[in-house]
Specification:
Elements lengths: L1 H20 L23 E6 L3 E8 L4 E7 L2 E7 L1 E7 L2 E7 L4 E4 L2 E8 L5 E8 L18
Antiparallel strand pairs: 1-2, 2-9, 3-8, 4-7, 4-9, 5-6, 5-8
């Protein structure tokens, strides 16, 4: 009986240690995926298709909308309608011109935040490569938003 108790205690200690390092699955503090976040009660990205390998979404950002801090596996993106945006990630904050018809193959992103700072609605088609996941990032890395 004492042997079983020692084994159970050791297993419990190992689980607590792994949880403290963030190695046992998604933690509440992990940065959420792009399709999980909301802005003003709405999800900007609509899932169009998903299987074991890919997820396809259409993301729409009206003037002033923010795609709050989120993560992506590697993805392909095609701009359906363009304008002006601001991106913030671990490299800092920068303005970008979003050009209709532009295509990009983007590596995994542990976290970033995207804001429509222009006068037009921005819309993207996104194909996430679930087989090329992003490293897990803690939500503490994300910008703090008022409101």
């Amino acid at each position: 009986m004492k042997t079983h108790l020692k084994i159970a205690s050791a297993v419990f200690a190992a689980i607590v240690f792994e949880l403290s390092l963030g190695r046992c699955g998604a933690m509440a503090e992990d940065v959420p995926g792009a399709l999980a976040v909301e802005w003003e009660g709405k999800k900007p990205c609509e899932k169009l298709f998903e299987d074991e390998q890919i997820r396809v979404a259409r993301c729409t950002f009206p003037k002033g909308a923010v795609h709050v801090c989120h993560t992506h596996p590697s993805y392909l993106t095609y701009v359906l309608s363009g304008g002006q945006a601001e991106v913030q990630d671990d490299k800092g904050k920068r303005k970008v011109d979003v050009v209709a018809g532009a295509f990009a193959d983007v590596p995994p992103i542990p976290w970033h935040e995207f804001a429509n700072i222009g006068e037009t609605t921005l819309q993207y088609l996104v194909v996430e490569k679930k087989y090329q996941p992003a490293p897990v990032a803690n939500r503490a890395a994300c910008p703090r938003r008022a409101g």
